Amino acid sequence: MALMINNSITTLNLEGNALGAEGIGYIQKMMEDNDSILDINVASNGLQGKGAERIAAMLQKNKTINVLNISDNGFVDADAACLAKAVENHPCLSAVNFSNNNFGDLSAQYFSHMLAENSCLQEVNLSWNHFRGKGAQALGRGLAENVSVKVLNLSWNGFEDEGASAMGKALGQNGVLQELDISCNRLSPQGFLEILKVLSKNDTLETLRVGKNNISDAGAELAIDLLKKMTNINLKLLDLSDVILGNAINPRIEEMQSVHPELQFTYGYTDSYGKRKLRSYDMVTEAIEIMQACCAQQGMTLVEMFAKFDADGSMSVTHDEFREGIKEAKIPLTALHVDKLIESLDQDGDGEIDFSELVIGAEEKGGARGSAKPKSSPRVSETNSTKDTTNDATGDTTNDATDDTTNDATDDTINASENDHANDLTVAT
């Protein structure tokens, strides 16, 4: 009753409250008269079939909801018709999360029609369901016709190469999608390449996640060679997390980045204190590590090496002086390594690298403070553990971006997830 007359709360989080069909029925009735709540999370509430009908009825009545999370509710193929149709006809929904349910190929046709017909959705999460090759083909047809979705998460299904081919064809026709996640879909190197080869026809996709698939070193090398031949792609991140590749791939990545300097290639993993970290090949990090290794072998610090570059004692060097110093010190860096290093270190863009910029760069990229531990070889190309970075820039978005809603207990948010009870709901001030 309180929420029926409240017009300041905009976010309602009831995740994990065992609402069931009866509980969601009360939410349905409340939402028929509420036009201020824009973000609803009713994930993990065991809604099942009857609950699906009530969610659909709620969407038919309430036309102001922007974000809806109905993941992990035991929905099956029979529930897809009413849910997908309600989303398809909704004029304001921008993000919907169907993940962690039991939707399969039989329901794919409904989601396909939803994608083709709705022009408001921007984020759709269908991960952790049971779509196989035929389902992927149906979803691909919907994606090809979609005009609004920017983020699509289809990870943890079972597309195999048949589904990969369908996604490739869809990308060749779609002109809006910016991020696609098809991680863990049983793709072979051939399926991976089927998707990549259409990127020359797609100028919007910026992030492609294909990790946890069966992609070999040879497949990754072919993919890199293919990308090098494409001159007009918009891709910024190719994420192969949990795909383990040998160090021999690094020179090929370097060659590719000379053609596409903005493209980040992420692969592999390590377990650090139980936490998995992505490994991203970073040319600047590698260059600093090589410099540190050379310093260690010569018994000096980076600061002392910099002093040799700085002939006039001004505590700064020009770009040309830096290049000449690297050459004279016989540091085994390629010209591209040096260019990328200069670009990164000259933070104020004044055409010179000063002492402070070098120290800051070493701390951020090399993890050192003007000194380095000795390494066995100046050419740093160890196993995955040497160049691990937490993928903060991309945030592993799609699994998290579409799953999560703003749960902060502010004056416009109700958070009653997990252990909270409906009768304990309060508005924090």
Describe it.
By secondary structure, the chain is an alpha/beta fold. The chain has three domains: 1-83 and 403-429, Leucine-rich repeat, LRR (right-handed beta-alpha superhelix) (Alpha-Beta Horseshoe), CATH 3.80.10; 103-282, Ribonuclease Inhibitor (Leucine-rich repeat, LRR (right-handed beta-alpha superhelix), Alpha-Beta Horseshoe); 283-387, EF-hand (Recoverin, domain 1, Orthogonal Bundle). It has 16 helices and 14 strands. The protein has helices at 2-5, 20-32, 48-61, 77-88, 105-117, 133-145, 160-173, 189-196, 217-229, 249-259, 283-298, 302-309, 319-328, 335-345, 355-366, 397-401; strands at residues 11-13, 39-41, 67-69, 95-97, 123-125, 151-153, 179-181, 207-209, 237-241, 264-272, 275-280, 316-318, 352-354, 413-415. The strands form two sheets. It has a twelve-stranded mixed sheet with strand order 11-10-9-8-7-6-5-4-3-2-1-14, with no helix packed on it. It has a two-stranded antiparallel ribbon with strand order 12-13. Strand 6 (151-153), helix 7 and strand 7 form a beta-alpha-beta unit. Helix 2 runs parallel beside helix 3 and helix 8 packs parallel to helix 9 (217-229). The chain is elongated, with a radius of gyration of 26 Å. The model is unreliable at 270-279, 367-414 and 417-429 (pLDDT under 50). Residues 378-387 have a biased composition (Polar residues). It holds the Pfam family LRR_6. Keywords: Calcium.
Brief digest:
One of its GO terms (molecular function) is calcium ion binding. Pfam families: EF-hand_7, LRR_6. The chain is an alpha/beta fold and 429 residues long.
